[in-house]
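Follow-up to my post from last week.
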Amino acid sequence: MKLFQPASLAEACEILAGERGVVPMAGGTDLLVHWPARAAEHDKGYLDLSGLSELRGVRWTDGELQLGALATYWDVIADQQAARELPLLVQAARLVGAIQIQARGTWAGNIVNASPAADGVPVLMAYDAVVVLQSARGREEVVLADFYRGYKQLRKTDDQLVAAIRVPRRSYTVQQFHKVGSRRAQAIAKVGLALTRSAAGWRVVAASMAPTIRRCPGLEQLLETGADVREPEALHAAIASDTSPIDDIRSSAEYRRRVMARVLFAALRA
Amino acid sequence: MTDQSAIRNPQSAIQVAFTLNGSPISAEIDLTDRLLDTLRYRLGLTGTKEGCGEGECGACTVYLDGLPVNSCLVPTYQVRGRRVETVESLPPARLDPLLTHGATQCGACTPGVAMTSCWIIDHPELLATHAVRELLAGNLCRCTGYDGILDGIAAAMQARP
Amino acid sequence: MRRQPPPVYSLIVHRLEGLAKLTGREQYVDDLPLEGFLWGATVRSPAPRGRVTAIRFDPAIDWSQFTVVDHRDIPGPNVIALIESDQPVLAPGYVRHVHEAVLLLAHPDRAVLRRAAAAVRIEVAPEPAVTDFRVVPRPDQIQYGADNVLKHLHISKGDVERALAGAPIVVEGVYETGAQEHVYLEPQGMIATLEGDVLVVRGSMQCPYYILKALRYALGRDETRLRVIQTPTGGGFGGKEEYPSTIALHAALLALKSGKPVKIVYDRGEDMAATTKRHPSLVRHRTGVTPDGRLLAQDIAVVMDGGAYVTLSPVVLSRGIIHAAGPYACDHVRIDGRAMFTNAVPFGAFRGFGAPQTHFANERHMDRIAARLGLDPAELRRRNLLRDEESTATGQVIRDGADRRAVLEQALSLADYDAKRSAHLRFNASSATTRRGIGVATFHHGAGFTGSGEAMLASRLAVAGLADGSIEIRSANIEMGQGTLTVFTALAAERLGIEPSAVRIAAADTARVPNSGPTVASRTAMVVGRLVERACDDLRRRLDLASSTEGDVRTAIRSWYETHPGAELVGEATYEPPPGVVWDDARYRGDAYGTFGWGAYVAEVEVDLRTYETRVIDFVAVQDVGKVLHEVLARGQVQGGVAQAIGWALLEDCRWKDGAMANAQLTNYLIPTSDDLPRIRVAFLETPYAYGAQGAKGLGELPMDGPAPAIVNAVAAATGADPCVIPLTPERLMTIADFGLRNAESKGQGTGS
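User reply:
Got it. Predicted complex:
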């Protein structure tokens, strides 16, 4: 194993530019799972970001919330402003593992881990978050909704590091997050649904319903038209076009489709 | 790049200096060590248990800079310069309410449960937004059904001034 | 009989080892200091059935640095001695289940060892495997006897056919339960060390003498050269009853070959994948009833999945069928039981030992009978619960003085059952997305070994007086969280009239303690605790003290040593069956147990119609387990058992591939967290049992029996659906509720699905 412990973001970017296959490490809550048994991972190089104070913290500006790459779920849970203004971030954070994970897991890590079942990504996406990528070549911003090209495929090159996440401050008339896991706490989502409405329009984001977390254009369009949805089944066609759920050891495609329709229907009625 | 920034020899152990249970310590570790391995197998602090190695059960809970974390998911090199507290740092008298209310049975989850419980007891302000059941959800216990633990926490919190 | 005042010492003794556990000082097997040792690892079969055609070692690794053991290194018979002799210690060229141990490796560096174990490839020429115990096997799948039946048992009382033919109403049902993983929080582990000529095995276990027997047989070593010592055991629940013999043998073989201490500690994934689980079951009921709900005939067929070796399946099946007709009076009962061979990882002991499966079926069936008759489910139970002088399915006449109806009434009253039923009707009519329901189960659990088991065990126990005036209890019964140390200490202190601080408990070390039997079957407090009392009495006799609590025992012990230089003062006791207990093992008739514990549990649930999730919002557990020896410990046993059973009922879903667990991680096999459970409200009625310690009956397993049916009955009441399968995951409930199926047969419990 090779370890890099850079003293600055600039140095971190140099290392990423110069070394192949180096894995950035923030809170470790994904990378260290079953670590002793995963010998192949021990042979890689790691870029330890934990010492980079410039990547820490939760910052509010006039127009946005900025989450540094090392901002943890607990940082957001403990932020009073977040609970008032962007409550879905707090709701989702509280559903990521329990305190032991919330204290270590980062929003940026949740984005780059690219799990289709992520909890942090759907709410960020429903808030139109933007991913700030830094490399030795410079800075680039990608809208989170465009960040995934396919299962674990990111719009990010190997030399780029997620340096921050920008979340616009808007006023919302609808903000809901629903996570259906196999138990109340510490569960991986079988269905996730984030729903917002602002001047920018409806955002419907589904988790565990496709190879990536994704916005659902069919459902968003249905809601924009103001169609009267009288029963969950009326959402099935749009869900079918927006998502492609699968059977796996956690749930079934059938369950995911039907429950997403029912949860969304109830959310719209609420 | 500083001297310390790149450790290239995969065989080499490194020194990591941190504060452990209030005292400074420098430990020689392997780069692949998890904090759990360092505590148990290098420093002999076997109070911290491994229940799953996947961050689910919380038996390996320690405090890192004051917050409960799963030490099975912390690479030891990341605790450089930081503050780590283990179950061995808990004063036995603090654990009395947990003992008398039946918070421990087999004991395998117990050190982690004790750590999280004491953290909750020390942060009553969290109860404005969180239920104790939610705060304790990262510690799996297969023996008690949690009631004995919850009763112990409640008693300890009531006893606080 | 109502509550008695608790004995004085149970009030003052907190869990003795509790503070050591809370502070992390308690040393489990992986915590013990050990020098110059090797880590051991197990290389396992990748296939469910077939001949091992090759074992390939990656040439990139220098294998001379490793100790390598296979079946040819076993000095004695290649058998893990238990009920039958069919299970090898290491597969001798033929495998019968995925994860069957084939090869052992040891090396001083655990990381190096892990890489090496992953670099051994076992090649198997596959043969047709059986992965669904519910289906009749094809000829090419037969691997045990003529029909893959590992054990067939039968109970018959009265004339079922005639009674059914004459019954005005017959209700039928089919019920299924899934496997369950124990998830004791301390994974399995053993250390084997050669100390001179004595092979010493230390580790996490429930039954030191089972391991001694297995070592003696397969290693061909007599007991003078073997020693088994239990280390503090981080949960067992049956999972450390028979399985530890395997890991002990593996560690021992590596230690014998390498000449060094060897430690094997499973990680969670290996523990979940390779060790035993609760037997999956399929139970059919056909019941004749009168219109007012009197049971006329019960015809019951029980099938259990035994897995690839016999292990304990015959006795699990036995306890299962003996409990299958429930705590009810019925003159005509027939119960047929079969345990089936499949190419699955063997199923084994798990808290309740077959009874939770059959109680689930019977109690769910009772509610379906009540629905058919238009009766309140509680009323149906009231009308059929056994009264003293009535008999169980095996013809055991119950006359223990316990009031089973009082247990039920107290549970209903604490749960506010009647008021809740009406409140739920109103709530359900007004809510668009939520349904509430309440469900009840009444059940019993036989305490101690079945039939003549206790008499055959002939457990022995000693209480030694020590020269300093303290005493030492010498027993093979172990502490795994259930409170053995505390209860034994309290019993001895009470019996001898000494302070608990003057009582020590010897380590469960086969070189030092007599065989007081395994720590299983809810027998420790009741049966072995009674031996503690009788050994104390024997000690008192040897001191020539009267049997009253008068007399300063400690002074008498010190004086005894002054007058008996060089001798040791030991009080002894050997098990004696209670008078009048008669069991006919050939006909499965008679007194199956010395006594039963009785329970009535009430669950209130809320079902989310959007997600089909069931949440238990209130739980009341009332039981009569004889005298309660320690209030906090007893309540903890019930709460923990109920929690484990709630997991089995709703969450814990073993997913299978080729007879092995496909979700062997705590991320994907979910047990309840604190946030998934309600407060579990516990009450005891106490009718003392004359032959249990201070009047105690067994307690540990009873709480596993009632929750699943109470919960599923509550779900049925809430939703109007008719679920008859557990775990009742949201996915299954969706299929049942929306498609009106009796249960989700297409996604059933076969281990191949």
